Amino acid sequence: MAEIKIGEMIKTKRKERDFTQEELANILGVTKAAVSKWETSESYPDITMLPQIAQLFHITMDELFGYTLVYQPLKIENQYYFGLSLDDVDKAILDHGTVKECKLCKCARFVGDSIENTWEVRVQLISTEEKFPYILQKLIKPGCVIDGYSVRLADGKIIDDNKPNKHYVCREKVWEYRNTDIKYVRQMLQEQLAMGLIDEGDM
Questions:
Q1: DSSP labels, the chain
Q2: pLDDT, the chain, mean
Q3: Which of 69, 92, 116, 134 is the most exposed place for a label (fewest CB within 10 A)?
């Protein structure tokens, strides 16, 4: 909690106005002992007297309390999360994000017309770089599809509003959509269908 500096301010301003403690006491209708206690922070003026004191010294209430407002603009940023196989992307992506999780997974992949089970290292990358989804898009290998999402943060706290905040990356395009808003999901699926990434039956 910030220190209350009323007593110190009263003493400073009283001396600037060349008042004795007794003269200030007479102006405010209190005793000299009361003024003395204010200045040594043994007690504080009655709250109803504070505007009168501030007006007498030509200062604001904030100045009387010794309070200085420090303005800090709200920092809003996106934090991106993408899970991917290290085999699917150029390792240069590691210069743009932080690996939060790394694990060995057994995955099914198409090899020609057949499906083969392979082991691969999958990581979860986190980044606050604004261009991260687009950088990732350029660095993924042809034919690979990567799904991820983002959250919007204000001074580190998640903002939950109606703005699109989820990103879907594939080999050709970055979509922005939000699961709770069907229009973004529908748009994403239509574009995937047009690109031949999914079939009508997947819709």
A1: -PPP-HHHHHHHHHHHTT--HHHHHHHHTS-HHHHHHHHTTSS---GGGHHHHHHHTT--HHHHHT---------EEEEEEEEEETTSB-GGGGGSSEEEEEEEEEEEEEETTEEEEEEEEEEEEEE--TTHHHHHHHHBPTT--EEEEEEEEETTEEE-SSS--EEEE-SS-EEEE-TT-HHHHHHHHHHHHHHTSS-GGG-
A2: 79
A3: 69
Please, how many CA atoms are within 13 Å of residue 159, restricted to the half-sphere of its CB? 17
**What is the spatial distance between Cα 48 and Cα 97, in angstroms, rounded to a whole number?**
56
pLDDT digits (tens, 9 = 90+) for 4-16: 789 999 999 999 9
Q: Do residues 167 and 175 touch, judged by C-beta distance below 8 A?
A: yes
Q: For 116-158, how does the pLDDT look when each residue is reduced to its tens digit (9 = 90+)?
A: 787 888 888 888 888 888 888 888 887 676 777 777 788 778 7
- CATH architecture of the domain covering 76-202: 2-Layer Sandwich (3.30)
* Distance from C-alpha of 152 to C-alpha of 165, rounded to nearest angstrom: 7
State the architecture of 6-65 in CATH terms: Orthogonal Bundle (1.10)
